[in-house]
Amino acid sequence: MIYFYKSLDSTNNKAKQLAKLNKSEFSCIVASTQTAGKGTNGRVWVSKPGNLLASIILYPNISAQACSNITLLVGKAIQKVFDNEYDFKSNIKLPNDILVDDKKIVGILCESTSDKNNNIASLIIGIGINTNILPAGNGINANSLANITDKKINNTWLLSKILTQLKVEYTKFRKAYE
Hints:
The chain is an alpha+beta fold. The protein has helices spanning 11-20, 64-67, 70-85, 145-149, 155-176, and strands at residues 2-8, 28-34, 52-58, 62-63, 90-93, 97-100, 103-114, 119-129. It has 5 helices and 8 strands, in the order E-H-E-E-E-H-H-E-E-E-E-H-H.
């Protein structure tokens, strides 16, 4: 299920609310804008209309240590989509960015809740992709897919490709921990 919103404070915050209601795994929250988008270490993710802002709900029920690999798994899934669909080389900058020509294109933020056994009960994967708009601000070293490809990016199409690839990678990951 994909939930579309014109504006949210944060897609991750909305995903956490929906996870508490036990919405299905791979439920996806998408917003055109965020008023309080999140980055790592408390940074703000600049959220302009036209870019892809999404969060995905997972229920991995695995240890926190095993779960730490999921951010990289998400990055690799997005990178595979880029490799298959576009004519440029992207690089993962650990722990949670994807760069093209040393400029940020993607930010990934995972937030989790634990059960009484300290296993990850729910995992929210926030993904921000500069698809059509360059972020503004001093010192921001970023680019957009539209700027790189000289084409307007269809965010719904790109999200569909990413969700499909992420399901493939996540299924392999889950089998390794069964």
